[in-house]
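Sanity check

After download, print the first record. It should look like this:
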Amino acid sequence: MIAMVGKEKTLSKEIIDEYIQLNFKANFDIRKKKSYFDILKRPELTITGRREFAGSNVSSDKLQYLLSKIKSKIELSFSEKLMELIKEKGKKPADIYKKAEVDKSLFSKIKSDKDYHPTKGTALAFAIALHLTLEETQDLIGRAGYALSNSVERDLIVQCYIESKAYNVNDLNGKLIDYGYDPLTNK
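Expected structure tokens:
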């Protein structure tokens, strides 16, 4: 059952359980797994770019070119992307960190340090406070080095909230506690 708490949706245990049942996937697929032994036997087949650097005859021009290509692919950091999303959504930063249940000092730290890496829970709380889609959430938390997995029940609960557009961090934190998990934030 989906209910409303204020202006936000809340989800029942039954809906979350059904979502988990439909989406849970074991996290190990033996057919796709490369062993360390395979990598050691034929590194040129398993490590991207390894073949070019197998010898020591790599010119400095080629290295400079490769470095420039790598630098051109560097994206915004978590902090930079968060601030961009807040601006794009036309929200005030204070409204977002309060809705994410993050305290002002932590938000200030994230905002002032472009290389700051929040916890996965904090990153997810911001995604929910910003009403991001699942794809946008994956992008934002990926910038902090995280991902949502269909083989982790806690992640499935969060995904269920996002896909149901139930953007209430407080309610989600309560459900995570009900399922025996730590909340996203501890404010």
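If your output differs, re-run the checksum step. Summary of this record's structure: Residues 72 and 171 are 40 Å apart (CA to CA).
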